[in-house]
Write a structure and sequence with these properties.
Chains A, B: One of its GO terms (molecular function) is acyl carrier activity. Chains A, B: Belongs to the acyl-ACP thioesterase family. Chains A, B: Keywords: Fatty acid biosynthesis, Fatty acid metabolism, Hydrolase, Lipid biosynthesis, Lipid metabolism, Transit peptide. 2 copies of one chain form a homodimer. Chain A has helices at about 40-60, 65-70, 140-145, 190-195, 200-205; strands spanning about 5, 15, 20-25, 70-80, 90-100, 105-115, 120-130, 135-140, 150, 170-175, 210-215, 225-235, 240-250, 250-264. With about 260 residues, chain A is of the alpha+beta class. In chain A, helix 1 runs antiparallel to helix 4. The longest helix of chain A is centred in the first third of the chain and has 18 residues, at about 40-60. Chain A has 2 domains: about 5-150, Thiol Ester Dehydrase, Chain A; about 170-264, Hotdog Thioesterase (Thiol Ester Dehydrase, Chain A), CATH 3.10.129.
Amino acid sequence: MITYKYGKGKKGSASIMSGVMFQENCVINYYECDTTGHLSAPMLLNILLNVSGSQCTELGVGEDFTHQLGVAWVVIQYEIHFDRIPQVNEEITIQTTPLSYNKYFSYRNFEGFDLAGNRLFTVASSFVLMDLHARKMVPIKEEIVAPFGILKENKMVRMTKPEKLTELVTEKKFQVRYLDIDANQHVNNSKYLDWALDVLDFDFLNSHDMIYCNVKYDKEVEYGQIVESKVSSVVNEEGTIKTIHQIKNGEHTACELTIEWKQK
Amino acid sequence: MITYKYGKGKKGSASIMSGVMFQENCVINYYECDTTGHLSAPMLLNILLNVSGSQCTELGVGEDFTHQLGVAWVVIQYEIHFDRIPQVNEEITIQTTPLSYNKYFSYRNFEGFDLAGNRLFTVASSFVLMDLHARKMVPIKEEIVAPFGILKENKMVRMTKPEKLTELVTEKKFQVRYLDIDANQHVNNSKYLDWALDVLDFDFLNSHDMIYCNVKYDKEVEYGQIVESKVSSVVNEEGTIKTIHQIKNGEHTACELTIEWKQK
């Protein structure tokens, strides 16, 4: 058991007892990188889920186990702080630690390190259990989380919410494609980030590094639907740039994101 | 040195001396799969290039070496025969063997196997060297291919060409996105396959397995451009279905594909 400070620097942060830590190494492949040869943020999300999935499998509560119970883990929020974005062919270590759970939510942290031990990123995340047939959130079953060695707490962990889009600068439409739908039968979490990034200017993306990304999923989008990806941007006092994103599916907000950037 | 039969069952096939074989294992990640939990064809292309890239690096002629010479390998054709499509979490072995080269083209085979040794797929491919500044094909430099242990042959290997689209059934437009451009500064080869597949019907894709795919790249597409992905389909005598694809960029044909499918 490790004592872990959750929600670094946020309101309501506290030292809490966390569960069994797990780590895995991976090499960053060229097809997981953007045009500058650095790991793309959508691919980071995919890699993180692979690592937590490996831990679940190792503890005997992997996808086979949850699917037998008619449920699957669904991420509803990620909050990422980047120290450095890893690059093509680099080997990195990802550690993940389950933190706690309550009736509906389970919390987990991730940290990435380079082989010299320097921290690359920290990620706070929250998951819910979805009933695979009803496609609805259901209470977390104790037998699924017991091997994580985490405590049930009645209090919810308050993660910072992405900011609300108030002023619209740019928007672009995207139709959900066949390969956006993954083996969990819904749009892969990483695709919302694709849609958010693609509204930003090519030269901006090439000349800036993501230093913070807060992404919150609100409502599933279905195959063939057309989403609108909207963005506004603000220059912060310290010279960094903040982009505020909203992915809309008709009247519904499907996803909201706040991203902070610094010049390369 | 291995004697290898290139271009299985095609006109002009012959036993030729091939070069140094290389193999690598990989696990199929969930985000590399389609909604049925099987490896998607675009991701297979990415994985293949990773394996040949690893061989180049191991032989001292990796990307660092080619970039110093101002060039990069570019795939211009793949011809894939599937015996079985690997599935999520499956560990597979990929073998690759460089075959021969001539003034402009270099040929390489890939084979995939499951851990029981059953063959999953065979892939014939051809590569050219691109000058990174002029973005033009240049003659193959001997120092880049020497470690492969392959022979220079004046005769070109004739790979089967994808069929020409004659009748149009369906088409869809796609705009090149930021993350379609990879660290090689052009649209990643796998994305053309995304565009080809996404024109087919969701239910068709879910109920059919790809058994053959021939993809030939003709002309680079640039960021922001809008491509038209067109398809027609034919039912073969043996009950399989053939789809004939064309990706157009304005007046230019960017890519052509022939795919064969069987019912799952």
